[in-house]
Amino acid sequence: MLSLSSLTALLQVVLIDITLAGDNAVVVGLAVRRLDPAQRRIAMLVGIGAAAVIRLALAVVATKMLAVIGLRFAGGLLLLWVCWKMYRELRTSEARHEDSAPAPGALRSAITRIIIADLSMSLDNVLAVAGAAGEHMWVLVSGLAISVLLMAVAATLIARLLDRYRWIAWIGLLVVLGVAIELIVGGGNEVLEHIT
């Protein structure tokens, strides 16, 4: 079970997770930033729990997903929709006083955004982790667990920063928008190559 190749694969997986967890953490932090602390914990637990299930499900079918043309493009469009929702929320919160209570349904909305964003952004992470893990299933499962844990820790820190420094939320939105555009362009190129 423990061999040099499996330990090397685990190290690669951890490095991939550290590199790719940031984008997802920004989305989670942006989604929960306006919730009160109790709702924030609920949204993060449910959203990150759903992220774990999504990543495990994606990992099970990761090799088959490589053959699906347009999947990255569709994920980019979903993420673009998440960006639009975040943009509207940021503009609304700028217009209102920050001390006002979260809008009704804010918890459900935050959880929905976390799940949709994670679904659209996790594909690259899962494929990279599955590729690095190779035939070592325990490395794959460990890598997915590490990525979810990193996302939870980073999202908590990001949400706290966003509470104190609102301008960071706009930078975070630009980061997520960049990921959406990258997915759309990359996925669009795949579709065009397949058509031609």
TrEMBL record:
Domain of life according to the entry: Bacteria
Protein's cellular compartments: Membrane
Entry membrane topology: Multi-pass membrane protein
Chief site of localization: membrane
Transmembrane segments: 6-30, 137-161, 167-185
Keywords: Membrane, Transmembrane, Transmembrane helix
Protein name listed in UniProt: YjbE family putative metal transport protein
Species of origin: Acetobacter fallax
